[in-house]
Amino acid sequence: MLTCLGVALAFLCGYFLAVGNIPLAAVFLTFSGIMDLVDGFVAKKLDRVTVYGSFLDSFSDRVSDAAIYLGLMVYYLKQGEGVYVGLALVLLVTSFLISYVRAKAEGFGLTCKAGLMARAPRIILLVFGLFFEPLSPWILRIVIWVLAVLLPETLVERFVEVWRALRE
């Protein structure tokens, strides 16, 4: 239930990004992130950890990421800022690939957590950018550039980590 609520909040974040209401987008992203952190903790405390729950959590994270980054793309598309539309697309694709590499590695029995930008730091940094965007639109733009550099770094680090582990 918490996982589904988190996805719904991420969709609201994406919607408010798309219509240009950045403060509300920031609030909904914050609560979506909190739900994402809390759902696993609650499942453990209630002794309701399941393989399906893990699958649902990962799937929901991807759906949430898509809603958020697509909302960001629409936001910048409406402003005619093609560079930031492209950067939001880079964030979407690299966040999916980071998740894919980790999932594939785990399928081989490996752990794969290398890199600076796991999902939680990505969301925290984006929340920061959204909350402070009303002070200056450059704050969100800088956050997007930072993410656009660090997400590929994380992807490469994870790829190399898996490559090294599979070579041994």
Write a brief structural summary.
The chain is mostly helical and 168 residues long. It is built from six helices and no strands.
Could you give the topology of this structure?
Blueprint: H1 2-18, H2 22-45, H3 51-78, H4 82-107, H5 119-132, H6 137-167
Helix pairs in contact: 1-2, 1-3, 2-3, 2-5, 3-4, 4-6, 5-6
Structure description:
The protein starts with a helix and ends with a helix. With 168 residues, it is mainly alpha-helical. Helix 1 (2-18) packs antiparallel against helix 2, helix 4 runs parallel beside helix 6 (137-167) and helix 5 (119-132) packs antiparallel against helix 6. It is built from six helices and no strands. It has a single domain (2-167), classed as CDP-alcohol phosphotransferase transmembrane (TM) domain (Four Helix Bundle (Hemerythrin (Met), subunit A), Up-down Bundle).
